[in-house]
């Protein structure tokens, strides 16, 4: 319990490396502790270790530990390993639990775009786009690009970004 508490405290302070150490040690002490697996998964997604994070999210759930407060993180892990259906279920559950969860909604939109559903992706981005959210506009451009709509992607970047930045993104859009 002390290691789990220290891991959470480290996360609360933004010290992902320290949290990783505490959760790793807790997992070594008891490899059947769902809270340690969940903590490791949260740390691993922050460290961009998506495959390990997805494995630990699944292990935590198998051990009875709910990821309810971390559905957007688990969704991201699944998205990054190519499991869009699982990711989209998590994002949707996160949005249903908290309709104002902007991050989950944006990630859901991108995940839908990865799956090729541009219309549904745009519906998820629309509230943020209407608010002028630059991140949402970039996401829309990349969704267009990943679905072969390079001209539409370029129109978005040219409309919402300074010319130099928009031009610099052209190679990524292609």
Present the secondary structure layout:
Blueprint: H1 2-12, H2 16-29, H3 34-46, H4 50-62, H5 71-80, H6 84-97, H7 102-114, H8 118-130, H9 134-146, H10 150-160, H11 163-173
Helix pairs in contact: 1-2, 1-3, 2-3, 3-4, 4-5, 5-6, 5-7, 6-7, 7-8, 7-9, 8-9, 9-10, 10-11
Would you give an account of this structure?
By secondary structure, the chain is mainly alpha-helical. Helices cover 78% and strands 0% of the residues. The protein has 11 helices and no strands. The chain has helices at residues 2-12, 16-29, 34-46, 50-62, 71-80, 84-97, 102-114, 118-130, 134-146, 150-160, 163-173. Helix 1 runs antiparallel to helix 2 (16-29), helix 3 (34-46) packs antiparallel against helix 4 (50-62) and helix 4 (50-62) packs across helix 5 (71-80). The longest helix is centred in the N-terminal third of the chain and has 14 residues, at 16-29.
């Amino acid at each position: 319990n002390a290691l789990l508490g220290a891991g959470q405290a480290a996360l609360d302070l933004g010290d992902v490396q320290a949290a990783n150490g505490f959760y790793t040690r807790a997992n070594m002490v008891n490899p059947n502790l769902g809270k340690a697996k969940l903590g490791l998964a949260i740390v691993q997604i922050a460290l961009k270790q998506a495959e390990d994070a997805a494995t630990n999210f699944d292990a935590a759930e198998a051990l009875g530990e709910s990821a309810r407060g971390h559905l957007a993180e688990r969704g991201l892990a699944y998205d990054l390993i190519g499991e869009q259906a699982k990711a989209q279920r998590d994002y949707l559950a996160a949005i249903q639990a908290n309709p104002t969860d902007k991050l989950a909604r944006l990630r859901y939109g991108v995940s839908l775009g990865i799956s090729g559903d541009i219309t549904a992706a745009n519906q998820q981005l629309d509230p943020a786009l209407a608010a002028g959210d630059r991140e949402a506009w970039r996401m829309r451009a990349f969704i267009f690009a990943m679905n072969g709509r390079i001209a539409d992607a370029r129109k978005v970047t040219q409309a919402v970004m300074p010319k130099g930045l928009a031009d610099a993104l052209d190679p990524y859009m292609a």
